[in-house]
């Protein structure tokens, strides 16, 4: 019964739970005295409880009544009145039937799932935005590829810079722009079943080409190239020095190898620390103790789990190694990277959301990439291709080099003109270094070789000699003109620097001429390098630069029938001790 102006009190409302005994008792004995009723109302009559029922003795001469029950009477349900009931000028809703326990559980589960979906959706978006915000990008102009997806093989340049910018004085000059200190050309096979990681020594003496760089105001500035001298410049000067960006290093690698580089990923000192920590440490095995006071490294022989600062000391050390050379340090770095790959794959990091986010957060903070892969979605697509390769089919090797013959004290090296072309030809034809003689899937036809050809008599080409063979340019010009009817071949002399692989550079309007020269010379598609247009000015003659894969005029430049022999290499699944 409601209490607003209606007389009487429901019997059930006169009882309440006594917290001291856990039983129901009359409200008149357990509640404090009620205040006087307002004028115009009547206090409901309440019969006093006998003393014995309240726990006391019966009055003399009176018989104690039977003990009052300690449970309330059943509550009287109000009569069902059809339609709405007016109360205080409003409308009273009809009472809902009681909800069963099972239905309550279902409602809670449905609500929780709905909340989870909302939180997951919003949280996923926020995480995506966070990772996107972590990534730093560089506009490298016409260097590299615009697409993330590739039907054929991919070449990704991984650059470890020694820049100290933003790192304080912990590693030296905080204003240093850095160099291309550690560089790896990662070749991913077209079938995504193998990969080859080629380390490029930083101390290779080589010419550095001109490099168009994008400025902050959107303009393009060409950084002049540096011709090759006896002991300089070195490969690592292709980044940071003179305003050169990672696109400049990509262009140099293409010049040296004849391979098209699709994308770059650049990291600094902090990346080694954060990534090794994010995966819970990287396990390496040492064949002997490594002690280097300069990098503060002090490790005993045997297994070690490295992360953070100690991992950085490990990959930077040279003075702890027998030859104290950059080439020995490269082997140590390759071992560390292989161990990290095994750690990521063996512990299910790529399938565990929490571990994957931790790694992704650390990686995106450490990475600088080209704009073509400068988002989480695009970068994820690229990483999936890399992650698909089994560790036992990822081979680490080093571009073959020899001591610089122009130095008495061998502080620099030059590309080995005998072994390097074999390795690069294997990469060009997508031949894995894990034992297979031929790629299991034939790459799709390259658009650079598809299309109409120009008549030989209408072809103009300048031939440079970067092969190291005396008279190679002159002999090729004579052969093209007298044997193949090429209209205007010109001797260009020696190339600015020796090349490992033959290269043909041309303007877009010369694509037909380029296909003709490629067919005559037996050039693969990877040797063709179309350049950007020159703003409407007539293009100059094409430039054919003979490389280390050239043997003689009229001999097609073909890949070897199998992977080259005698290379220093190791697979990512190797757990052999190093040092």
What topology, given as strand order, has the largest sheet? 5-16-11-6-7-8-17-25
Q: Mind describing the biggest β-sheet?
A: 8 strands, mixed
Average of the residue pLDDT scores? 78
Shape: globular
Radius of gyration: 40 Å
Cα end-to-end separation:
90 Å
* Low-confidence parts: 1-13, 28-70, 81-91, 111-123, 436-442
The counted number of beta strands is: 25
Beta-strand portion reads 15-25%
In short:
With about 575 residues, the chain is an alpha/beta fold. Helices cover about 25% and strands about 20% of the residues. Residues about 1-15, about 30-70, about 80-90, about 110-125 and about 435-440 have low confidence and may be disordered.
Q: Secondary-structure map with pairings?
A:
Layout: E1 15-17, E2 24-26, H1 27-30, E3 85-87, E4 90-92, H2 101-134, E5 136-138, E6 154-161, E7 180-188, E8 195-200, E9 211-214, E10 220-223, H3 246-257, E11 263-267, H4 269-278, E12 282-286, E13 290-292, E14 297-299, E15 302-306, H5 309-316, H6 326-346, H7 353-366, E16 368-370, H8 376-387, E17 394-398, E18 401-403, E19 413-415, H9 420-428, E20 460-465, H10 472-484, E21 488-494, E22 503-506, H11 511-521, E23 528-530, E24 542-546, E25 569-571
Parallel strand pairs: 5-16, 6-11, 8-17, 20-21, 20-24, 22-23
Antiparallel strand pairs: 1-2, 3-4, 6-7, 7-8, 9-10, 11-16, 12-15, 13-14, 17-25, 18-19, 22-24
Helix pairs in contact: 2-7, 4-5, 4-7
């Amino acid at each position: 019964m409601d209490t607003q102006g209606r007389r009487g009190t429901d019997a059930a409302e006169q009882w309440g739970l006594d917290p001291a005994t856990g039983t129901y008792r009359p409200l008149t004995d357990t509640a404090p005295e009620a205040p006087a009723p307002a004028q115009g109302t009547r206090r409901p009559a309440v019969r006093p409880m006998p003393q014995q029922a309240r726990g006391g003795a019966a009055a003399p001469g009176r018989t104690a009544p039977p003990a009052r029950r300690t449970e309330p009477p059943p509550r009287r349900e109000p009569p069902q009145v059809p339609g709405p009931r007016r109360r205080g000028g409003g409308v009273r809703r009809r009472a809902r039937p009681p909800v069963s326990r099972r239905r309550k559980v279902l409602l809670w589960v449905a609500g929780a799932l709905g909340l989870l979906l909302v939180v997951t959706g919003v949280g996923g978006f926020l995480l995506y935005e966070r990772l996107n915000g972590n990534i730093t990008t560089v506009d490298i102009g016409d260097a590299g590829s615009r697409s993330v997806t590739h039907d054929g093989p991919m070449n990704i340049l991984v650059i470890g810079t020694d820049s100290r910018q933003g790192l304080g004085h912990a590693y030296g000059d905080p204003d240093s722009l850095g160099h291309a200190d550690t560089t790896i050309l990662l070749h991913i096979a077209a079938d995504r079943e193998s990969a080859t990681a080629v380390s490029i020594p930083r101390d290779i003496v080589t010419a550095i080409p001109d490099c168009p760089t994008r400025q902050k105001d959107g303009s393009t500035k060409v950084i002049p190239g540096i011709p090759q001298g006896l002991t300089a410049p070195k490969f690592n000067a292709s980044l940071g020095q003179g305003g050169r960006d990672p696109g400049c290093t990509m262009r140099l690698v293409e010049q040296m190898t004849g391979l098209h580089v699709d994308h770059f990923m650049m990291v600094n000192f902090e990346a080694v620390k954060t990534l090794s920590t994010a995966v819970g440490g990287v396990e390496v095995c040492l064949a002997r103790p490594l002690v280097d006071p300069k990098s503060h490294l002090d490790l005993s022989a045997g297994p070690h789990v490295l992360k953070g600062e100690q991992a950085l000391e490990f990959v930077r050390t040279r003075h702890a190694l027998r030859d104290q050379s950059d080439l020995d340090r490269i082997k140590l770095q390759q071992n560390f990277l292989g161990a990290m790959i095994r750690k990521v794959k063996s512990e299910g990091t790529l399938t565990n959301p929490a571990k994957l986010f931790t790694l992704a957060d650390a990686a995106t903070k450490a990475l600088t990439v080209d704009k073509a892969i400068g988002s989480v979605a695009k970068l994820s697509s690229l990483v999936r291709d890399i992650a698909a390769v089994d560790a036992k089919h990822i081979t680490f090797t080093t571009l073959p080099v020899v001591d610089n013959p122009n130095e008495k004290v061998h502080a620099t090296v030059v590309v080995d003109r005998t072994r390097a072309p074999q390795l690069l030809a294997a990469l060009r034809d997508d031949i894995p270094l894990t034992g297979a003689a031929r790629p299991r899937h034939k790459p799709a036809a390259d658009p650079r070789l598809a299309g109409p050809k120009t008549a030989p008599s209408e072809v103009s080409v300048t031939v440079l000699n970067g092969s190291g063979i005396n008279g190679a340019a002159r002999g090729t010009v004579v052969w093209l003109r007298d044997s193949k009817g090429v209209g205007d071949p010109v001797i260009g002399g020696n190339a600015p620097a020796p090349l490992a692989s033959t290269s043909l550079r041309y303007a877009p309007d010369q694509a037909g001429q380029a296909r003709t020269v490629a067919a005559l010379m037996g050039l693969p598609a990877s040797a063709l390098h179309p350049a950007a247009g020159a703003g409407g000015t007539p293009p100059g003659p094409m430039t054919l630069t003979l490389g280390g894969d050239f043997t003689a005029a009229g001999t097609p430049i073909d890949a070897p029938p199998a992977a080259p022999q005698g290379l220093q290499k190791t697979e990512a699944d190797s757990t052999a001790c190093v040092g």
